[in-house]
## 1
Amino acid sequence: MVNKSTQYRTEYSVNVTAKEIVRVIGIEISEDMIVDTLGRLGIVTVIDGDAITCTIPSARLDLRIPHDIAEEVGRIHGLDNIKGVLPSADVQTKQEGTFNSVYQLKMALINLGFSEIITTSFSDKGDIKLENAIASDKGFMRTNLRDMMRISLDKNLRHMDLLGLDMIKQFEIGKVFADGRERLSLSLGIIGRMKEGKIDALISENIEKINATFSISLPAHVKGGVVEFDIESYLNDLPSDAVVWKGKNVEYKKYSSYPSITRDIAVWTPEGTTAEDVEKILVDNAGELLTSPPRLVDTFAKDERTSYAFRIVFQSHEKTLTDEEVNIVMQKITQRLETNAGWEVR
């Protein structure tokens, strides 16, 4: 194969100084050593005062500017001989007021048990149409946060048992584009296995706590488990350093990429039996596929007996579990429970 192009076939020159090379590669190296190194690469050098004129062979199309020459000297000298040094600078940073206010609001919500979500700014409908949409269902700028909050809550509901949670509490702070302007909004949402009215009351309770923390007056009327506020008018009232994160140190653990399987089991027990007694048997017999401690989901007393209902989640780190595999574990648990006098699996 022959390259007939004549664009870069002639030799050309690059001017550089020893000081410039030293500054770029970060180590002291003499001018004589620089010239010797370049000579070994077939680069002819001419020294005129501080300037080093380098005649570059026609085959070296990668050497075009002084930095290229410096990098080549460093490469031949040995990159392992060049110590990494962090640059130093006296930089005074100042965080913008809105950032601090939003940060304080986020910390307050996290302290209340909410998790932050960040959803797309694009939607399939809206007031502002994009000229070059990335997808057919993302052709407009979003007009609210509520729609994606509801979608996110519904998707995360399926993971509630796996995470060992009684409810999912989420918030999002982001820009929306409606009524001819851009504004900053806050959306709160809660979902769980409880009546909608109770969820709305719980959100209202959390809003009141936010109001008390910052001495503001977000409206606490909620309907449908999701609420949204225009918060720009409240930002100036939020302090910049009032809220301290009250969370505990989080210990992260590897999660499985395979789906989980959930099973419920209820057992009648004699009077005086505690939920902890039942839970211990479940844990001892569930084996290594148990993802987290069983969750007590219902208690019912009748005729001097108490029924405890638990939800158990199984998951493997190696494969997708089958119903048959989980049924074997559940059968073992059932047999063990019924060995206790007066215990009856419902």
## 2
Amino acid sequence: MRTAMFLLFSLLLTSCSGGSTRTVRPGEKLVVMASTTHLAALAMAVAGESATVQLLPREGTDPHSFEATAEDRRRLEGAHLLLINGLKLETFDAAKLAAAAGITLVDCSAKIPKSFLIAPGGDLHDHGHDHGEQDPHVWLSCEGAAFQAQAMARAMASLDSSNSEGYLKRASEFQARVLKLRDESKARLATLPDRSFVTDHDAFAYFAREFELKNLGFLRKLPGKEPTLEERRSLEAAIRKSGAKAIFTEPGHDPAASETLARSLGVKLAQLDPFEIGKPSATAYEETMRKNLQAVLEALK
């Protein structure tokens, strides 16, 4: 039975890896590199004390614009596994980096059902990132994060057989916790009379769908890029028509445009964290989602 399970893990891993399968040798500890803050946090929750998890970009680096340095390539050579979000979130050539380092590459979104995925773009204008056919921000749904945690757990189990049961167990426990958070939060949010809001950029489609909110649109096509006059007027009209109560900014982004719009419309200004930057930890994902959900409850009540 155990052998059959590992054959299954290996098959699943091969389907979304770059082809390399350097495994953990006796006395060695699994080293995992993650392309984004949220993946590093999920990997830490799954790894426990059995593996070392590192963030590939420098802390605070926008994942949309990261490019690997010579030092990053050297760090990859000391790892066994590179985790990426996929769905064209990363702009660097992850397959080339992993192949050069001789390590396994896992796209943590590769096994997410197509029926779960959302096409990019808001209600008001097109998104400026070239994310392809699907919105990559799947982790801002508890269910999406659970999919990704399971994918990385299978990869870790395949590469580090002596700790496989622990990886799979922690991923299942993580899934149970975040789905419980989802269900409890949906019940609380259902009491809100109006669940319409506007975000800084187009990252919260999965979040809005999961919690039955209405994201009217977003202020910027690109993080850090100021909206045009036409975009701002279109957004103002949508907010006035809907009666939306809040505009949400993001950590690390200049809030000036959002502040001006909120003042002119007399709506609340609050903050939602897409967890694209910041310090990863084993509890950071759940803490961030709880904080986001509380922010929505406070702003829309």
